[in-house]
Amino acid sequence: MDIKAQSLYQEMQSMAAQSKMDFGTPEAIQGNPSSQNFADLLGNALDTVNSMQLEAKDKAIAFEMGDKSLSLADVMVAKEKSSIAFEATIQVRNKVLEAYKQIMNMPV
Fold first, then answer.
1. Prediction pTM value
2. Distance CA 50, CA 82 (A)
């Protein structure tokens, strides 16, 4: 396969010229209207995980005290949900720390 640099360069220039003609003047870039502060999102996620763990703990205590409205299955499902949410939170934390370390090790 023979690719000539000059023809490739000319094709790229013609494509760039066509793209400028098609769009005219660029409009102002608008941010995502549904975007939130990352700290708020993280805080909400941690609050949700915490509430799931507290709910599982409360269900376990109520079941141990003899609450007839709770079954063992309900308690186990609540415990597993809270466990999975906690493990997911740990994985997200690990990924964020890994990304932070990579950013800090980037040459300036």
1. 0.60
2. 8
Average pLDDT for consecutive 10-residue bins of the chain (108 residues)? 61 69 54 68 90 95 93 95 94 93 90
* Whole-number Cα distances in Å, 36 to 15, 40, 42, 43, 95: 37, 7, 10, 12, 20
**What is the residue whose two structure tokens read 């499902």?**
77
Type of residue numbered 97: L
Taking the C-alpha atoms of residue 89 and residue 77, their distance in angstroms, rounded to an integer, is 18
Beta-strand ranges (E) seen in 3-98 are: none
Give me the phi and psi of 20, to 5 degrees please: -70, -35
